[in-house]
Amino acid sequence: MIADRASVGRVGLTCDEHHCITCGDDGDPMTVVRVDADRGLALCADEEGARHTVETALVEPVSPGDRVLVHAGTAIASLAAANEREAAAA
Amino acid sequence: MKYVDEYRDADLGQALAGEILSLVEPGRHYKFMEVCGGHTHSIYKYGVDDLLPANVELVHGPGCPVCVIPMGRVDDGIALAHEEGVIFTCFGDMMRVPGSDGSLLEAKAAGADIRMVYSPLDALRIAKQNPDREVVFFAIGFETTAPSTALTLKRARTEGVENFSVMCSHVTIVPPLRALLESPDLRLDGFVGPGHVATVVGARPFEFIPADYGKPIVVAGFEPLDILHAITMILRQINDGRCEVENQYARVVPYEGNQRALEVMAEVFELRPHFEWRGLGFISHSGLKLSEAYADLDAEKRFSVPGVRVADPKACQCGEVLKGVIKPWECKVFGTACTPERPIGTCMVSSEGACAAYYNYGRFAREREVV
Q1: Termini Cα distance of chain B
Q2: Could you tell me which chain A residue has the CA closest to the CA of B363?
């Protein structure tokens, strides 16, 4: 594994002195835990297990267990669709 | 974790570094610009530059949304934050950007109610929790972030949240790239394209780069192997005599982008005639404002803002750094008067800024280049 230089890897979704998740154009992979379809929101878990309320309008429909890429509280891509593209490319 | 671990594999990284070495022509100097600040951060964080031959140079482009905000815009934000009854919200790095008389963080210390949020949705939540206060969200970012602001504005309208407004400083990526390509003092051989902007707008908007300027561009992901792979793809284009848009980040980026995101942006925003970029000056049609349909949620219309243009500090050379004309350490104040703790220029504020990334991670590479 390629290590980062200063061992300051992100822990959860934080803005700290080393990194601002929104300013950095980050996309964070998350897993959908619960869906509130009426309000266009989903509860999603990041890689540390922390939960976040996420806008899902750009990737609907989503279901629990789906993987999405989240930026600034909004799911901007579905990783299921990414899987399909990858399989098609292969 | 899938889509992360396999893109940080050290053996594959070494293999790609070997491939790059085999693709470069000895004696020729290659200059590639990574457009996105996220790439700059990854390059320094993972030491990608150390894996490249000495004749492959990476130039850090204008893709850090914090670094391109001019001082006058920060002053406008601070003025809004001092309005009676206002709660001013913004992303983390924006708090430390210096205006002509201090930063938002210093304004907060002086008593203004300024709160850091992770998303526009958080700002809207604060508005709902404080119905007797006016909540302003300072919206910055490229097309990656703009849909999030647009969706939140639609939600504010749907839910009838009247005490919420947005100071819109969103920018678009194509006009500054065109401005850079027109710049006479910049010679580039190719571009590493911005992966997450392309998730929204697609790879198609970058077709003007090979078509009009004869430069290859490869849209890339943000893991170290993504960046190395993108560089091999650019070199192959050069060696094959090809010049086109390629999509290294196809696992996330559809060539046509996210249509729903483009539609919501078209509904909520319209292009400003011109927008000032730090170090780059005014660029036509490069900034977004709220459309007429959402004008009632525009903080710049709801409140009075100074709107005064403030010249960049004379000592600061962010403009030349953003254009890749000089390396960060060649700036007169780099690491002395200007540090991440006390930044003069915005490139030293955000860790995606070339200067801060270099200051935090890049000293070894600097030594190598000096030798």
Answers
A1: 39
A2: A5
Q: Which of A5, A72, A74 is opposite residue B45, by nearest beta carbon?
A: A5
End-to-end CA distance of chain A: 24
Mean pLDDT on B277-292: 92
* Cα distance between residue A70 and residue A29, in whole Å: 6
pLDDT in tens, B85-113: 999 999 988 888 888 889 999 999 999 99
Q: Is this structure's pTM higher than 0.90? A: no
Closest-CA residue of chain A to B364? A5
Q: Mean pLDDT in chain B? A: 90
Answer whether A24 sits within 8 Å of B350, measured CB to CB: yes
Assign a CATH topology to domain B5-65+174-247.
Answer: Rossmann fold (3.40.50)
**Spans of all domains in chain B:** 5-65+174-247, 71-171+257-302
| Token representation of residue B40 | 């700059």
Which residues make beta-bridge pairs with A85?
none
| pLDDT, tens only, B249-262 | 998 999 999 999 99
Give A32-89's CATH code, choosing from 2.120.10.30, 1.10.443.10, 1.10.10.10, 2.30.30.140: 2.30.30.140
